Amino acid sequence: MINHWVQFLVCAAIIVFAGTKLTKSAAVVGDNTGIGSAWVGALMLPLATSMPELVTTIRAVMIDAPDLALGNILGSCLYNLSLLAVIDLVEGHGPLTSRINKGHTIVASLSIITICLAAMAVTGFFTAALGWIGLETLFIVLVYTLGSRYIFRYEQKNAQQLSGKTEALAEGIEQSTTRKALLNFALASVLIVFAGVFLTDAADRVALVTGLGQTFVGSILLAISTSLPETVTTITAVRLGYLDMAVANIFGANFMNLFIIALADLFYFKGPLLQAVSDQHLLSAVMVIMMSTIVIFGLTYKSKKRVAGIGFDTMLVLIAYLATVYLLFNARGN
Questions:
Q1: Whose C-alpha in 107, 247, 283, 334 is 20 to 30 A from the C-alpha of 290?
Q2: Tens-binned pLDDT, residue by residue, of the chain (334 aa)
Q3: How far apart are CA 272 and CA 125, in angstroms?
Q4: Other CB atoms closer than 10 Å to residue 108's CB: what's the count?
Q5: How many domains does the chain have?
Q6: Helices 4-33 and 159-170: angle between axes, nearest 10 degrees
Q7: Residue 222 · residue 56 · CB < 8 Å
Q8: What is the spatial distance between Cα 53 and Cα 60, in angstroms, rounded to a whole number?
């Protein structure tokens, strides 16, 4: 029998490989078809990079591990936001938020609204349900649907800029036909589905054997593993000089991740998913809200001050993430 740690690491490596192929294929589709200026930049790329979270979260609820599922989503959002500090450090030409578009506040704000709804459900504010689906799920779907429509319209106004972004992601890839890119996208998706299933099962066993608990393992180990495609895409965009693309990828992925909560609720037949999890997730939810708000403040204030080579706001975001990891570790086992 394969050791659960070996299974976890192998599956994580497969997800990194497939997730990278998935994202690059999406970029090629957008570049070849001409739809990359809006639809791909706003929706397809976040969907591609969030595919691992989608598969692992749904698998978690299917094996009756709701805390692993929600921990994966909230932990991914936390980790993605911490990447802002990495971007600031790698780019190294001044505070990040002073050099990027204020338009990122739109997606960041929508993410905050969505996570507030999720947190309210965890506290027990929502008690009504339609069958096994929580009322909060319907609100989350509504926010995502209307928000995506608004984002799409906004991105259309910036079509020329986003076109360059998708070309940047496809740079270094042998330009292929749209059909081939779609085939690669589909094959990578299949790999992620299979790897995601085994990764989640391994994570569930790690939580049980080590005593770390589903909340900690989902929020840290599983979340970081499934967020590696975002990491690769983000760093690639930064190295190519597309800072706005990198930041948009982070907030777009977070918004998509929060929508996954609603999708996972459909597969949790024991009742509303968010009403069946530990209240420890409230810490992660509050920290995601706090970190997102710090970034919104930085985008508005545009401070030029730096600390240890990065902006003061992104430094605070990184400290908040590390503090959350520490607090979740101390509360492990639940």
A1: 334
A2: 457 778 878 877 887 777 677 666 766 766 666 554 444 545 566 666 777 888 888 988 998 889 989 999 999 999 999 999 888 887 777 788 888 878 889 989 999 999 999 999 999 888 888 888 989 999 999 999 999 888 777 766 665 444 455 555 555 445 557 778 778 878 887 887 778 778 778 877 887 787 778 788 888 888 888 787 778 777 776 776 777 777 887 888 899 888 999 999 999 999 899 988 988 899 999 999 999 999 999 888 888 777 777 888 999 999 999 999 999 888 765 5
A3: 12
A4: 21
A5: 1
A6: 130
A7: yes
A8: 10
Pull the structure tokens for residue 57: 């979260």
Rounded Cα distance between 217 and 203, Å, is 7
The answer to whether 212 touches 69, Cβ cutoff 8 Å, is no
d(CA 251, CA 248): 5
Report, in this order, helix, strand and coil percent for the chain, each rounded to 5.
80, 0, 20
Q: Which residue has the tokens 């998708």?
A: 166
**Quick check: 27 and 169 in contact, CB under 8 A?**
yes
Amino acid identity of residue 9, one-letter, is L
Task: Name the residue range of residue 68's domain.
Answer: 4-330
* CATH, residue 271: 1.20.1420.30
Please answer whether residues 78 and 230 qualify as being in contact, where contact means their C-beta atoms are separated by less than 8 angstroms.
no
